[in-house]
Amino acid sequence: MAVDLSxxxxxxxxxxxxxxxxxxxxEGETRRAAEDVLAILEVRGIDIPEAVRERxxxxxxxxxxxxxxxxxxTAPTAEAIFTDQ
Length: 85
Known about the structure:
The structure is a single chain. Helix content is 62%, strand content 0%. By secondary structure, it is mainly alpha-helical. It has a domain at 30-85. α1 runs antiparallel to α2 and α1 runs parallel beside α3. The longest helix is centred in the N-terminal third of the chain and has 33 residues, at 11-43. It starts with 10 loop residues before the first helix and ends in a 13-residue tail after the last helix.
């Protein structure tokens, strides 16, 4: 019995795979950005309350995470990365 495998090499299947790869890359970059924010705070010896840790790790916006990363370098507390100084 022959099985038609043409779908797996079709332009549609390639497009679906590429969308999946792009989504995976974006999620990976966002996760890494959150880890970087936490790492900066930890290296600086700043206590990170669970609520702050959760807010950082659940943020899906890379621009916000980049902003928080810059703030983490000088913020006196973990909570201060979320407020304007």
